[in-house]
Write a structure and sequence with these properties.
The complex is a heterodimer of chains A (about 425) and B (about 260). Chain A has one domain (about 5-424). In chain A, about 55% of the residues lie in helices and about 10% in strands. Chain A is built from 19 helices and 8 strands. The longest helix of chain A is centred in the middle third of the chain and has 24 residues, at about 200-220. The termini of chain A are far apart. Chain B starts with a strand and ends with a helix. The chains are: A alpha/beta (about 425), B alpha/beta (about 260). At the A-B interface, α19 of A face α2 and β8 of B.
Chain lengths: ~425, ~260
Amino acid sequence: MADYQQMWANLGMDLEKHDVLCEVLPEAFGGVYLTQQDRPKGMDFYDFVVSEIHGVRPAEMLQHQKEGGKVFGTFCVYVPDEVVFAAGGIAAGLCGGSQFWVSGGEKVLPANTCPLIKASVGARLDKTCPFFLIPDMYVAENTCDGKKKAWEILAGEVPMHIIDIPQMKRERDVAAFAAEIRDFIGVVEKVTGKKINAESLGEAIKLINNKRRALQRVYNARKASPVPISGKDALLVTQINFYDDPARAAQMANNLADELEQRINNGTGVFPENAPRIMISGTPMAIPNWKLHHIVESLGAAIVVEESCTGTRYFENLVDETASTLDEQIRALAERYMKTNCACFTPNSARIDDIIRLADEYKVDGIIDTNLQFCNLYSTESYLIKQVMTERNLPIIHIETDYSEQDFEQLRTRVEAFLEMLRK
Amino acid sequence: MIVIGIDIGSVAAKGYIISSGSHHRAMIPTGWSPREAGQAIIDQLLEASGLERNQVEQIYVTGYGRVAFEHADKTVTEIKCHARGVAELYPEVRTIIDIGGQDSKVISTGEKGQVLDFAMNDKCAAGTGRFLQVMATALGLDVSELGDAEDPRQMQTISSMCTVFAESEIIGSLARGNPKGGIIAGLHQSVGKRVAAMARRMGIKEQVAFTGGVAINPGVKRALEEEIGTRIIVPQACQYTGALGAALLAWETLRRDL
């Protein structure tokens, strides 16, 4: 790894503590990722990004700031990145996915807060992640009570803009979200000092759509049997797309998709054709949370699709590119984002329809519906999902877990028993 | 044909050896090394049966220690093994409640002992043998003494499901001079409530069997019966059903391959 010590020191990071993280990550990544057989060549780029995870992209962001650009940190797939890029800014997904940061969050948050929020707050307060220290502004939202209140704590640290995400999807809610996007445009213009017009927003819409199209290609390849890429690798691609440069992200995902399509033509895969095909549905898995994927795939089953924010919810729908005026574009953005189905909405039967559709498209043998510990929304919704899937004879298991390793053996037993049921 | 089934749990390792016409079983504390415990079980089974290691055709291993044990021909989850073991002893059973040292499970089974669905406690000691062990220590008892020491007539309800909070709650209860037997009945009730809730969520079909080390404790059986509202069967060898299931699964595989 290149030497980033000076850069980290300039950011005011806690270098001693950060060294601990830098020491454990390569080993964890090696054990989970590099032990896999027949990985696509296209994964080399993502392996490289992980090997320099706190160096290469943060350096680009700092260079961007040096040249007068602004960086916005985000925490949710409902934040329209298009607005930020239209103003020449960089948007980067920040969610924390490591147990390493949880204790830092627990210093200020109640114990019954989900690990994603704890890790995100801890990463900032402990100053052990450059991504959390670089942004000029955090763009947050109110998709759950835990996040809503955590932002009030982080607002003491960094300028914060909150987007009010509707809780229902009536016409007036879509209109309200369009108004939020309009406000957000004003905020971004003020921070960047750049006006957003129909031309720049139109280009940004195409830029982000292209990234979505590339990810859709990678996911489409996973519909094949044998599956040409592991669930772990596909998850890593999505995770890195949250903060990589969107044009490069699209290019890399397209390169990977080319290779996967070639593999399909040759009939080669990374799991035997008869390996159980599993869908993961539920809460996001922020980098470096690979825990459940690793357990499932180590037991010989292939994860072929994630119905989650680090999966289909991130890229499934495109923004209408034919919108030509700013008003039309704002409306098109609102419509696209309101198609995403998160458990923070009610009613949310469209999410169940998504799961049914994905199970069919990806020829899924069983569903592992999972949520991070203390995520009330997704864990409550799991009851309804189980009812519907059971009616349709689709085997399903619900797993609640966090970032720690302590339930690893228990989870292994549960997943293994679930696979035994599928294989009989 | 000779097979062995081993269930290496967090507290105890159990084993069954089955040969045409006879079977033997053995149990030892798992201790710190699941690997050594598994080996010791094999040695004991061979000694009890008078058979030699090279006569054993298949060894199936289950329980949390299954991954560490290298002499397994196959590893199977305890969920499948308990289902198979109980089906052999009580074919009418459709729901199995298994409470072991570190987890509790509810298994819904079909007519042939196949697993239809199951539920397992999330990462938390509430409703497990570990919970009772911590509480027994707080009460100055061994976990094996709890069953006989309870007095349900003087029931002291424990409101905390959490092992940490429940421990301070019973210390407080003792300090207020409440009878020990009543506190213990309250602990059993707490485990019963917790596990019954998990069972109800999955759906309870009769008959119901109760297995695992905690099933030895008649107080927990009583509490579960009260909570679920049905009679529960505790197999005489309630700790061995997983090992029995593993041995039977090994036996069936061999027979199929013949």
